[in-house]
Amino acid sequence: MERYSGFGLVKHGLRYHENWQRVWRNPEPKKEYDVIVVGGGGHGLATAYYLAREHGITNVAVIEKGWLGGGNTARNTTIVRSNYLWDESAALYEHSLKLWEGLSQELNYNVMFSQRGVMNLGHTLQDMRDIQRRVNANRLNGIDSEVIDPQQIKEIVPAMDCSANRRYPVLGASWQPRAGVARHDAVAWGFARGADSRGVDLLQQTAVTGIREKDGKVLGVETNRGFIGARTVGCVVAGNSGVLAGMAGLKLPIESHPLQALVSEPIKPVLDTVVMSNHVHGYISQSDKGDLVIGAGIDSYNGYGQRGSYPTIEHTLQAIVELFPSFSRVRMNRQWGGIVDTCPDACPILSATPIEGLFFNCGWGTGGFKATPGSGHVFAWTLAHGKAHPIAEPFSIDRFNTGALIDEHGAAGVAH
Ligand SMILES: Cc1cc2nc3c(=O)[nH]c(=O)nc-3n(C[C@H](O)[C@H](O)[C@H](O)COP(=O)(O)OP(=O)(O)OC[C@H]3O[C@@H](n4cnc5c(N)ncnc54)[C@H](O)[C@@H]3O)c2cc1C
């Protein structure tokens, strides 16, 4: 694999950029692999990367029905943070945030991780109590988090209307300085390149159409390119998790919903952090290109179409204009949707199933991008050892039998 560097860029420039290597191969499927990962989004690719990198398991295929990163990974608004309420989720997301901090160097690929801070606004007394509680919990878990007042907010975000006479006045916020944003597709491509260079086969345009099992053990997957065998299969297909589980005769406590985002025309730098409000129900950041990146809450109906409804967009833009009246004249450029896999307790499932060798990594809902490296890291361990990584243990599907749910609705909400 060619090592990327500033020097290499100059060298290629002198050769008119004609000799760049392909970033990954396009192999024919083998008859059998040690591990199959279904889903070539960020989580699936990270799983394959860490299987090869950390566990030396390289006879691995990632099977993707479309193109790498074409699902939620490249449709999300890229917010990365770890300020979750409960110990179990704080451990998972903080594990991920620590991996983010070294990811560009680790992958030798610039994922443009920008730790510009994330603030979650409070507009009512109850919001502020919840914020205080979550900040305290975060600090007990060693996560950087503080409560800031409207004056501090105004200093960080001068464009926001923090005046007391707004309909929903800003009373304060939680603030995580190490949080931020990253370049979504670069994350998928970086993991793909790293996995491919270690021998992982990335099979695009290959849809899994069935899961073959015998005597309670998985044997492999049926695809539109024929049967591919493996004794370990990890399904990482986000909004399609229910469909994949159905192929194995299983039911997951997951609902698939459209989730939308939109970006404006590029404007001059005006916002150098991420602002979220669960109460007025919207969030916003500014990309390096200058677009305002705006995210909505989920559309309430279930569906698999990667598009959403107009009322949800309208509602979101009302929220943004409430916070930033001056943005009312900015024109919106593009809008799109993804299909998110939501769990009743707003937490993921990282779990074995009743079928030996078949595992699921799903339920990340509106907030899994931030978990991409951490999820891949612990899921690879889980697949390699055939049992849950200690960080993944509380996220077993068994929690829906035992009742040991981890309710993260407060930390998830509209706030991705
Ligand atoms: C609009 C929007 C905004 C978001 N904002 C944020 C945010 O700011 N921060 C955050 O942390 N999270 C955010 N998220 C959530 C985040 O995008 C997801 O949780 C995360 O990207 C999921 O990654 P993944 O790899 O599991 O899924 P995906 O990237 O969706 O990958 C799953 C892959 O599986 C493939 N697949 C499905 N079925 C099959 C099959 N039968 N055979 C083969 N392949 C199959 C799909 O084609 C897809 O490529 C947002 C999501 C959306 C839609």
TrEMBL record:
Domain named Rhodanese: residues: 35-79
KW Oxidoreductase (keyword) present: yes
Classification via PROSITE patterns: RHODANESE_3
GO terms, molecular function: nucleotide binding; sarcosine oxidase activity
Any one annotated GO CC term: cytoplasm
Catalyses which reaction(s): sarcosine + (6S)-5,6,7,8-tetrahydrofolate + O2 = (6R)-5,10-methylene-5,6,7,8-tetrahydrofolate + glycine + H2O2; sarcosine + O2 + H2O = formaldehyde + glycine + H2O2
Protein family membership: Belongs to the SoxB family.
PANTHER family the UniProt entry points to: FAD-DEPENDENT OXIDOREDUCTASE DOMAIN-CONTAINING PROTEIN 1, SARCOSINE DEHYDROGENASE-RELATED
GO biological process entries: tetrahydrofolate metabolic process
Keyword list, A-Z: Cytoplasm, FAD, Flavoprotein, FMN, Nucleotide-binding, Oxidoreductase
Cofactor: FAD; FMN
Location of this chain's protein in the cell: Cytoplasm
Chief location: cytoplasm
Source organism per UniProt: Natronocella acetinitrilica
Protein name: Sarcosine oxidase subunit beta
Entry's EC annotation: 1.5.3.24
